[in-house]
Amino acid sequence: MSLKDRLAREIALTGPMSVADYVTRCLHDPQGGYYATRPAIGATGDFITAPMISQMFGELIGLWAVELWERLGAPERVRLVEVGPGDGTLMADALRAARLAPEFLRAVDLVLIEPSPPLREAQARMLADSDVHPRWVASLDRIETDAPVILIANEVLDCLPARQFVKTEDGWAERCIGVTDPDQDGKVDLTFGLKKITAGFKRPAFEVQPGQVVELSDQQAAFGRDLAALVKAASGAALLIDYGRARAEAGDTLQALRRHQKVDPLEAPGEADLTQWADFPTVLEAAVHAGADVTGCLGQGEFLQLLGIESRADRLKDGRPDAAPIIDRQLARLTADDQMGTLFKACAIFSPRALVVPGFEE
Fold it and tell me: If residue 225 lies in a helix (H) or strand (E), which one and from where to where?
């Protein structure tokens, strides 16, 4: 039985499912979830991430980590953590760039947090010949706090789903996934609908018009709290890069990607990547309430420029005229306002307060 059929039967028996629960099942169901069974990242897959666009992205993150380590006092031990490392490309490029600081590499305990068995295998292959051998843990709370932490989370928040609430003429309702009436063959399909709110909703402080959707993610808030607890206990910083909103606002951001095309998120559960925008205000507010300090949000383009991506591009083009057009396209893809430069944003959660996080200097 397909995941879609199992979800339809479950909904028919127990009632409508929240958007957040539906996305979680589509991504992580052990038998049919996208990441659990068939993640397809890259040009020939369903979506592509910044590290796969250009080596410059991961290299700059690696040098960012080295600089942060130095600002932490160049400790003899440091825990380098990546959450959701994809196929391992970012970390492979970061560790290669970090060879400029061999003392840093000798200090590193590399920890990867990855729930997907297929992606763990891909990461192991990618990092097999790296200077530092990784180990895997299941969750943030498994990270030891006996050494400073430098954590990277690129395109992780968009995998932490949100419930959706709709303002109607009669008040607020929750948008959920239900099933249609059976057709003549007794078959039902998945469909969106509204139901009465029972719990977990706080009326937004911003203006919302009837028909607009507001997304609230307990999982993203919890991630912010957990990161704050980690960096407070260990010292260090967590770098978050994702596409999303830097201010609270309405909007339905649920999307499904298959072969780099948007598809109906209810069409084939488990066979496409489902995402929702990162809610940076919620994540950072949760971190502050948990006692950590935070930076503001920068566009990815501005952040990478502050880290020196244009100089790195020039170095890569030096003596390679045939490669220059490709490198220029990669640079534009990562930094241009009409590509990833503005929609994607970067911020950091850190402790102690005196720590100045590279790229976010005032």
Answer: helix 218-234
Cα gap 158→251, rounded to integer Å: 14
Annotate the chain with three-state secondary structure: CCHHHHHHHHHHHHCCEEHHHHHHHHHHCCCCCHHHHCCCECCCCCECCHHHHCHHHHHHHHHHHHHHHHHCCCCCCEEEEEECCCCCHHHHHHHHHHHHCHHHHHHEEEEEECCCHHHHHHHHHHCCCCCCCCEEECCHHHCCCCCCEEEEEECCHHHCCCEEEEEECCEEEEEEEEECCCCCCCCCCEEEEEECCCCCCCCCCCCCCCCCEEEECHHHHHHHHHHHHHHHHHCEEEEEEEEEECCCCCCCCCEEEECCEEECCCCCCCCCEEECCEEHHHHHHHHHHCCCEECCCEEHHHHHHHHCHHHHHHHHHCCCCCCHHHHHHHHHHHHCCCCCCCCEEEEEEEECCCCCCCCCCC
pLDDT at residue 151 is higher than 90:
yes
Please report, as a single letter, which amino acid is at residue 143: I
Instruction: Tell me the average pLDDT of the chain.
Output: 95
Contact between 42 and 185 under an 8 Å Cβ cutoff? The reply is: no
Q: Is this model's pTM higher than 0.90 or not? A: yes
State the pLDDT confidence band at 39, using cuts at 50, 70 and 90: confident
Q: What is the mean pLDDT of residues 107-131?
A: 95
Cis peptide before 352 (omega within 30 of 0): yes
Which residues are registered as beta bridge partners of 166? 173, 213
pLDDT digits (tens, 9 = 90+) for 226-262: 999 999 999 999 999 999 999 999 999 999 999 899 9
Long-range CB pairs of 118-125, under 8 A, 24+ apart, other chains included? 118/35, 118/37, 118/38, 118/39, 119/35, 119/39, 119/85, 119/86, 119/87, 122/86, 122/87, 122/88, 123/85, 123/86, 123/87, 123/88, 123/91, 124/88, 125/88
Reported as a pLDDT band with limits 50, 70 and 90, residue 184 is low
